[in-house]
Amino acid sequence: VGGAYSYDCSFGYIPNVELMKFISLATFGSYLPSCPEVDLNSQEMNAYHKAFLTYSFLKTPESMNSEYFCVSQHKLFNEHLVSASGNPALVMRRKKHTEKEVHAHLISVVSVRLREGYTIREISLTKGGTQLEVKLVLLWKHNMHIEYLAAASWPLDPAKRTTRVEVTMEGSYDILHDISCTQRKPITSPYRTSVIRRFWNTLQSINQTDQMLVHLQAFNSIPENYMIPESTKNGVPLFYIPPGSTTPVLSLQHSGSKDSPQSQFASYWKPILSMDANFWQRWLHMHRIAIILEHDMPVPKHLHTAGNNGRYSTIQCRISHSALTSLLRDWSSFVLVEGYSYVKLIYSSSDQPPTSFYLVRLISKAPCMVLRLGFPIGTPAHVRNKIVDELREQILKLRFPHRVQNKEVTPKTKRKIVGHPSPSKSPSIPAPKPALSDRPCVVVLNKPLEKLLIRYEKLPLDFRTPFILNMENFLQPCNSAVPLSMAANRTASSTLASLSRYFLHQRWVWAVQSSQGAAVAMQAVAHILSMLSE
């Protein structure tokens, strides 16, 4: 994007100084145009300490100035080409994009913008000290910025959730012309068209992010948002996801008129359920609990040798998975989707409505699974840490039963005993609970080791080459529904492809049957594999 005036070249003196400076600013880093001398006798932080050890959300006016990209080594060649003062076409111009009101608190709005990569440009009191203005800027390109102005009445009132927002584009004349006048004169360059499309997608994402923030902060403003329907209280999931789809569908038990409390309750939680966990950090404080499920016992007989039908058995984690989902179902306030998403309401007192909530999303594939907990912006850190620690302790207490007759024993034994005996009836002898063994159901990981888990979904054609991701099966439109299984395979394949680029990745194949000597029986091979597995 840009016209004839482009200063991306440095004439071979230094490769793309503007790009290096832009990356340092956009990623909260530092760029040193020179190497200042260090006073070894000084006890204060020198320039290198401040550049590499300090962190700031505030951008100085000097760093945001367009002349910041034009230093002495450029002016040695052609000041008219690279300097904005010598070329009016390079002067940063401003154009207002939108102005609106966001029904959210100013602190939450600023927090969301900072999580998206914005930096604070200026904080000031206007209108005689009755209004607080916070200017944030997103460095989208070295000659293109997005300014986000958030203003609210001062002093801030937590009860008033109204913030005036103004979005302004900043850039050179050529860039603003290309972005604003594409309808009048279409651009034929595919690269420039792609850059313009990505820029407009960034502007649209601002509105979408603000809408989700308003939706989350409206939780306790309407009773229908937190009044749980009776069937949902009894453990019926609010939604279910059909096979081969990613769109949640309302359960039949909750279907009714659009104006019914059940429908209003479902309409509030459906957008929250559809949130991509990869973007939770925009609106939520995130915590994670990584676990490995223990496999079922005993190990299948035909694990290393084929059965009568020629098929092999697989190792399952059904008992531990059922125990985990049963714990989450009993521990949460209600279930959004069974085995996938749960909600827990937070109460300040038992006789008051809930003040907030948090989500629990169960992701990844067994046996390695991750529980992601999301708390709305503003939840105190000590409250979040206490909840996460309590849930981790409950997970660590899960145990296998001594004897498992069928896969439904664990969920029944893990369910809470609801109800109280009637005083008019004689007290009955409680049924003895099945004895639990000392074997835990899960192993909790303190490090994100699931990122390094290598999965072989298919038999590779060449064992000597590292994994190469094939994107042909995943090139689908963004608005098309991708099955959950395909999305999970894509995530696992992408992780394995990344590992193959950064780590030494080799496979070994041992040939048991040699050309000389007696053939090794399959029972012996199975015994060797069993010993290696144990």
Protein architecture, described:
Residues 410-434 are annotated as: Disordered. This is Protein SZT2. This protein is 30% helix and 19% strand. It folds into four domains: 17-217, no CATH class; 226-274, no CATH class; 280-416 and 434-451, 2-Layer Sandwich (Alpha-D-Glucose-1,6-Bisphosphate, Chain A, domain 4); 454-502, no CATH class. The strands form four sheets. It has a six-stranded antiparallel sheet with strand order 9-10-11-12-8-15, covered by helices on one side. A hairpin with an 8-residue loop joins strand 6 (239-240) and strand 7 (249-250). It has helices at 17-26, 47-53, 61-64, 72-75, 79-82, 106-115, 173-180, 190-217, 230-233, 261-273, 318-331, 381-396, 409-414, 484-502, 522-533, and strands spanning 93-102, 119-126, 131-141, 144-153, 163-171, 239-240, 249-250, 284-293, 334-337, 341-346, 356-363, 368-376, 399-401, 436-440, 442-445. It has 15 helices and 15 strands. By secondary structure, the protein is an alpha+beta fold.
